[in-house]
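Bench log, entry 3. Co-assembly request; chain sequences pasted below exactly as received.
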Amino acid sequence: MTQTAAAMTAEHLSKTYIRRTRGRGILGLTGREAVQVKALQDVSFRMEAGEIVGLIGPNGAGKSTMVKLLTGILTPTGGSCTVDGLIPWKDRRAHVRRLGTVFGQRTQLWWDVPIRDSYALLRDIYALREDRWRRRLGELTDALDLGELLDAPLRQLSLGQRMRAELCGSLLHEPAWLFLDEPTIGLDAVSKLKLRDVLREENRTRGTGILLTTHDMDDMLALCRRVMVLGHGRLLYDGGLQELLQRYDREHTLRCVFSGTPRFGSLPQGVALRQEEGAWLLTFLPGQIPVREVLQLVLAAGELREMTLREMNVDRMIAGMYAEMSL
Amino acid sequence: MRKRLKPYLSAFRLRALLETQYRAAALGGMATQLFFGIVLCCVYSALFTQGQADVTLAETVSYVWLQQMLFRALMASEGELMEQILDGSIAYTLLRPVHQHTWWMFRTLAQKLVGVAMRLLPMLLCMPLLPPEMRLSLPESPLAAAQFLLSLGCGFLCVTQINLITMAVSMRTLDNRGISGLINLVMMFLCGNIIPLTLFPPRLQLLMRFQPFAQALDAPIRMYLHAQPPAAFALSLAVQLGWTAALWALSRQMWNTNLRRIVIQGG
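Structure output for the full assembly:
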């Protein structure tokens, strides 16, 4: 490993799949065509060791393809990528030895054996020293609350327990890089929080670089300062999460509850009003209308009982961003 | 009437269309049946017309039982691997820093050894319940037993390579029914599981003994029945190990090519 190379880089990374269409005729052999599917096009970025980066984009945007290229289970059709100086698909075994991976939709532990046995197998696969493995397993089972589950086979665990077990398995060998593909999908709040805590801690104490694919904006907000947005196989945005939010979530929402029915009169330009579960929602763009005016409007409308400001609606931000980038 | 039948006709049409996708399976099935028909006719005509080779009934009974008891060793039924090949998650095993071919070879070996042991012991216990002429006899001598065990070990190694080749082919066709069905049937036949290889006409014996499938179970069983002189024993082991090495090289090559292909085409 060279000193300058403690990073993950991609340069003009591209992946095109060939898919054959079904032909015509009884045998389906006539008129078969090869269709090129451009899963990833000309993606370049650099991610430093120790960074946490969120990877977002709608389904089919190329997120999984990118993760597969970076983990070395796919070969690019164009461009290149390196992780700490290694070329993933060429130096596969040396590369994956330093990786941890969690795929929300696929298990990487062994289904029918107690998870303790899976961890022992991982110890042998990664050639971990017995005492070091034991200490690490102790740390992780404490942090992830797995102690009582170690003797249960994976198939008996709930989804939340399973994901915690998967994360433990991916961290046992102290990977330099961690790839997480929707790790919190379908989890309850407690499991999500626990998972995020462990990830933050891992990143803080060991400098583990984390690339997190998710649809869950709370994951993003809790963990990532930087995000990359993919759409139609292209890298559309690479930068700060806050900047992204500010760019696409300029709209503020004031949620007001009145005693009695308020009377709003005519609304000024740039303010929209709707009712939701007994409350009135005023949405406006702060740049377009002074906040003072909106407040005056509310106060004049009736007897105000409570008021909250929702300044960040991440789902709307994502939807707005996708719409603007025409995804 | 036509209207009411419509959904079913539609289902018929779709299924018929789907069936045409399995052209290779159909071809394989046809070839298998043709092959079996011809070979079975050959064997029976030899048995009926020439009187059989120098094999006793007791030997044949023992041969049959050993084949049945060791049957599990033949099958390429690493169910998990096939599942992973079919749903594509085999690609995810690439995330582990291990050599794939060796990894699955050891898993297959474990499955065979334990699978055979679990079936063999209860079957041995059942033997006293059978009429005496239908029981498995003991090995001819302690030497025969020792040769049998050693040769059986080599047989396991050899048949594992054949299984790995079957799996490699399944990885390419993404459908194990055609190839596995075909290979498993041919394998059962050529291993002597359907008809003892010792019953084949004498002029076919040489061919039968040296073909790769005979190395799995037929070679060890022959030793169980008759201890071999040192030279013959050494030759037999050499043939087993030679085939094992050749098939290992072939299957490893096929796996490497396949994995590169997975990596290039997409998981």
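Chain B has one domain: 24-265. Residues 230-265 of chain B form the longest helix (36 residues).
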